[in-house]
Every structure is written in structure tokens, then in C-alpha cells.
Amino acid sequence: MENLSLLMDGFGSVLTPQNLLFACIGVLLGTFVGVLPGIGPAMAVALLLPVTYGLDPIGAFIMFAGIYYGGMYGGSTTSILLNTPGESASVMTALEGNLMARAGRAAQALATAAIGSFIAGTIGTLLVVFFAPALASVAVEIGAPSYFALMVLAMIMVTSVLGGSPLRGFIALFLGLTIGLVGLDLNTGQPRLSFDQPLLADRIDVVVVAVGIFALGEALWVAAHLRRSPLHVIPVGRPWMGRDDLRRSWGPWLRGTAYGFPFGALPAGGAEIPTFLSYLTEKRIAKRKGVDEFGKGAIEGVAGPEAANNASAAGTFVPLLALGLPVTATSAVMLAALQGYGIEPGPGLMTDQPELVWALLASLLIGNALLLVLNLPLAPVWAKLLRIPRPQLYAGILFFAALGAYAANLQAFDLFLLVLLGLLGLAMRRFGLPVLPLILGVILGPLMEFRLREAMAISGGDVAGLWSEPLAVVIYVVVAIAVIAPLAVRRIRPTPAAVAEELDTPTDESVDKEQVR
What we know:
The chain is 72% helix and 1% strand. By secondary structure, it is mainly α.
């Protein structure tokens, strides 16, 4: 009841004409950017990060809530209408959603994705209201050794377990940790990796890193593989669902939510696993009922994975707000926004900044509702945006990326860094290196260094101090299992042919690997 009372206070901060306007602008901007081909919610948030400059933290994060859910909705639109997922978590939505669109049921596919996103996001946010404060109250008592171990766990899980290649994941993590070292040493004040450049003494701005790696890197990658032929966009009217569609969708919405939230709330990150599990579950249930339309455009194959994706996205706010641990690319960018306002993430955030935290949670609920109210009627408009020629589209992205990087510190030097980071993002996509470990390394690297030195100072320089707490020992055991388990699983992993047979998905209908990347 206390949490609900605090949430009501958050609604009191959000439900003002000015803040509701920020929420509407955030939803529209997030959908506008997220619906463009190849742009996921992480890139949408990174690209629009500078838009919030000049706002107070509460207003900025109310707008971020709208951008966040708007970008998620936009990703499902491109998956359904273009068979082009904005991120890997939308791949399962594309499988059946695009087949529905080809069969003339694009309106129903978009509707079940939007309503499922609303239901899953609302339930997930309410669960965050109950879980995050309880976890934060426990986390305040965690010592430096255990907190350092938690950060190691988050990095290992995101880098090793969920990536296709652990080696590539660790290479990306190493690059991120290296970028995070740039600047003055926290204890000695000595410059590190600054190359005698005074402008690097205060570290590289995380906004510049996020915009460079996501926006500029993606734009350069698409430009290098530009298809000048116009995109074939499937026509769509206003999304609607009949009684039979609703009857077939409500179960997958709830089951997808149950799959997605735990995976988001654990410091492991990623919505790929719950969306895949949701897809398989709905496929098997449909087979038992004898009405299996999977492989032909089953509405259950859109409703379940899309709900799992959004519930997982809501769940990521549990470790973000309670522990200061971002476990997805989007939450990493939002954590960077927190740091940009001088707010220190971690277990003390909910007690030090209660007004901001509860306003953010309230704005997530409001942004989720506005998303449904505003975007269902506007679906035909968003579909027309997909017809923007690629050269003009990515020229605009480059312009806003450069404007955002310059606005961070009003330094022309940041534009030079933006180009370098954009080329790094292009190289990472060329060699298949995941982006999330790099962003995690940049953000968590300095925090890990601080906790490591604190733990070593407590133990008088004895390395054994890193596992001097029972919780730290348990976490390191989990880390060891997380590293060893993929090696064992790889030996018994089914072949691609077996996976295709399980999904009943023809290879010529599969999502293009370059699009997924």
C-alpha cells in the first residue's frame, strides 16, 4: 500500500498539462523514429537524447518514457509491414506478423501487437512498482565486494550467455571498458588514454558514445549496403480486431507477459529468449487445439512474442532503478541520461531521488496508455513514413546525430569523436560484434573501478576481500556456471535444420541476417 501511495504521488507530478504534453511528444517522437526501418528503441532513445536538454529531470524522463514505448511500438510496425526487425527481440514478431500482412491482415497484426504491448507494459510496470523498492531496500545493505560481483555477473551474463559468440561479446566489452578508462584517474588525478588532449580529461560523454555507436554506426552500415530500390510497404488501414481475434489473443498476451518480465528483471538482459519461448508455447498450444496456422500467419505468433518483448522491457527497470545495472541497450542509454543530470545510479537512487523515480514509473504507465490511444489511429500515417527514400532518411539521421553530439558539451571536438565512434560502430557491425557489451563497459566500467578500489581499501589490499561476503561468493559461483554452461549447451545444441523444423518456418521466409544484425 505504501508503494501504491508513492505511485499516486508520482501521478500527481506527471498529471500536469506541461508534463502530459511532454509525454505526448515523447510517444510521437519515439514512434516516428522507431518506425523507420532498421532503427530499434535503443537507437531511438539515443538519437532523441539531446531533445530533452534544458528540461528538468522529471520532465525529461516523462518524455523518455514516451520515447521508450514509442520506439518499441515502431519496431513492431517495421517487423510486420517490412519483415525488417529493428532489433533481435522483434524477430519472432516478424515471422508471423509479416505473413499476416501478406495475407491482408496487417491491420489485425498491428492491433494485437499494440494492445499486447499495452497490456504487457502496464502489468510489467505495476510489478516494477512492487519489486524495485523491495530490492532497493535490500541492495542498500550490500557491501562493495558484493556490488562489484553483481556488476561482473551482469557483464558476463549479457556478454557471454545471450550472445551468439562469447568471444565477440568479450571483445566488445573490452572496447567499452577501454573507452570508459579515458579521462582522469578517480584517485590519483592522473590522465589515462587522453593522448595529451585536455578535452578528454573529463571522460568521453556517454551521449556521444551512444549516438555514435547506435545512430552513426547504423547509418554508415545501411549506406554501405544501400538498396536504392523502393521498399515494398504492405498497405494498412486503421488497426482493428474482431471478436475471434480477441479470443485468440488474450491468452498469448498474458502468457507472453509471464515469460517476459522475469527475464527482464534478472540482471541477464535480453528479450530474445522469452520471445522465442512464447512463440514455441503458442505454437504447441495451437497444435493441441487443432487450429495451427503457424507458418501461414497466426495471430498468436504475434500477440505472445510482442507481449513478452514489452514485459521484458518493463522488467529491465527493476535492476536499473534498484541496482543501477542496465541490462539492455535501451536501459543503458537511459542510465546515461541519469548520469547526464548528475544523478548517481545505484541502490540509493530510490531513497535519494524518490520524486524522480516515482514520477518515472507513473509516466511509464501514462506513456503506455498514450501510445495505444494515439498510435492506433495513426497507424496508416506511420506506414507512409516507411516510403521515405533511404538516402534522404539516413542523411536526416546523420544530421540529428551530429546535432545531438554537439549539443552534449557544445564542443566541436565531440563531432570528431562522433565520427571515430561511428566508424567503430560500422566496424563492429561488419565483424558481428554486439553493441550492448560495449555500452555496458562504458557505463559500468567506472562504477566497477570505484567499487573494486573500495573493496580493496576495506581489505587492506588483500584480493581475498573481493569474496569476503557470502553474497559475493554465491554470485561468483553463478558467474562460473554462466561461463561453463554455454560450453556444455553448445555441444548438445540442435542443428539449424532442427530449429527450422521446430518452427515450421521455410528458409526462404526467414528473416534476412543482415536485417537482424
